[in-house]
Amino acid sequence: MIVLFISLGFSLDVYSGGKLSPNQAAMDVTHYDLRLKVDPYKKTLEGKVIITFILIGKPDKIEIDLLDQFHVSGTAIDGMNLAFTHKNHKILIENPGLSIFKSHRLIIKYSGKPPVAKKPPWDGGFTWEKSEDGHPWIAVSCQTNGAYIWYPCKEHPSDKPDGVDMYITTPDPLTVAANGVLQSVHPTGNKWTTWHWRTEYPISTYNVNFTAGYFEAVEKTGYILDKPLKMVYYVLPEKRNGAEDLLNDAEEYLNFYARNFGQYPWMKEKFGLVHTPYLGMEHQTINAYGNKYKKTKLGYDFLMFHEMGHEWWGNYLSVADWADFWIHEGFDTYAEALFVEEKFGKIAARTFVNNRYKKNIKNEQAVVPGRNTSTGYKTDNDIYYKGAHILHTLRYLIGNEILRESLKEYMQMPKEFPHNQTSTKEFISLIQKNSGEDIQWFFDQYLYNHILPTLMVEEEIINNKKFVEFWWKEEGFKMPIEIRFQSFDGERNRKLILNNSPNRIAIPVKSDLNIDPNNWVLYQLKKESK
């Protein structure tokens, strides 16, 4: 099953990330409190967002992101109403002399029609659907375009608040499913109800999410590494049959991730799934799920498995710059190959890597672009498939045990940035330390250069022998390569240590040469005969 994760065209020309402005660089958001009425009949939002923040510098203005199409009716900081401008998707408020290193409270009141998602989840906005029984079914997606397409925030991957409260008011009899733990359900009159959800874990702005529908909550207590975890699937009646099996599968997959990368990060809250009218997205503790219980030929739910993996790779360990987005997607994608290997064996895993990864790599642009990248950078599926295969090739180079232990250590080790945020540079440093070798040449070629390394092979037949020379075209590239051939006394397997100088071997003239027989290495072949 091939899924195209990245859409190359979006209807919204707004994005997350990029270079922080001086105003926003001086601001650290610690908490969001969303209090919103969501009207599926008018397709509108109205309410207020309370942003708690600390200044770590002295900005000229307090700068918050929000789409221009919303109407902002007022702003106040620490109880003081302040003038503002709202243009170019920015709310700018004059700094009234706020103290630094102290907590402040900004209230923004707003209303309007959020954008409608044209191709969710890749194209951001609201999806206003109806379930088969005629009730409204509301979903939000915003990873690519940024959370400010529906609520005011500091939209940048480097700033994760310590927690979020959401008070979402919807018409009866809808249920609202969101991040964290349900605090209360409060009828507000006229057949409307407010659902209060809270997460007390750090969370990326695009992971803040809710879905509303006429759901049934199917629950179980799972055991992840023998620790109890609340598991719940909010599902429409039309897809109720199969919900228990889905949660049973989820428990198995969660244990796989926990064994390989450490305990499920959100044990105090829940593992949640919510039925969505789009395919899926990794919203922290409430993964969007619209895969309709489909399974791969091997018999597992690829969509749930992938989005669940982001609870580790993307939600818990996050990047501070979208230039490093391959750490979210490539690492999570490679986890699937490790799962296939563990459950179905090495041959199945080898076939999986070739069919899922290698056949879908384009090599049109570098996996890691320049710093201060936004989601407007038109990346492609290489951050998934090539990123995963790079880890597969790295495993061959440094060894299975070193890679696996490094991945687990990487997830849990102290980071340069707060809230377990990381960078490609930090990952490379860890691998260099754990392998005990300087393999910067590996990362320079595979991550920062879009062209695959070229293996030069030159054959010459002299008498009854075939002489074959191997070397890498790219200066400084040193990847060893395995070969297999038939000798006079049977099959031979050799591992060649290669660099930029020819390494010559002799094989029988009629023997076929199999290069990289176990398909570990990403490369292109240039073969010549003398």
Summarize the structure.
This protein is of the alpha+beta class. The protein is built from nine helices and 29 strands.
Report on this model:
The chain has 530 residues and is of the alpha+beta class. The protein folds into three domains: 214 residues, Sandwich (Immunoglobulin-like); 129 residues, Neutral Protease, domain 2, CATH 1.10.390.10; 76 residues, Sandwich (Immunoglobulin-like). 20% of the residues lie in helices and 34% in strands. The chain is built from nine helices and 29 strands. A hairpin with a 2-residue loop joins β4 and β5. The radius of gyration is 26 Å and the shape is globular. The relative contact order is 0.09. The N terminus is likely disordered.
List keywords for this structure.
530 residues, alpha+beta, Immunoglobulin-like, Neutral Protease, domain 2, 8-stranded mixed sheet, 29 strands
What's the domain count?
Answer: 3
Shape designation? globular
As residue ranges, the low-confidence spans are: 1-10
Count, helices: 9
Counting DSSP E segments of at least 2 residues, the number of strands comes to 29
Strand order of the largest sheet: 5-4-8-2-1-11-14-13
Radius of gyration equals 26 Å
- Terminal residue distance: 43 Å
Average pLDDT over all residues: 95
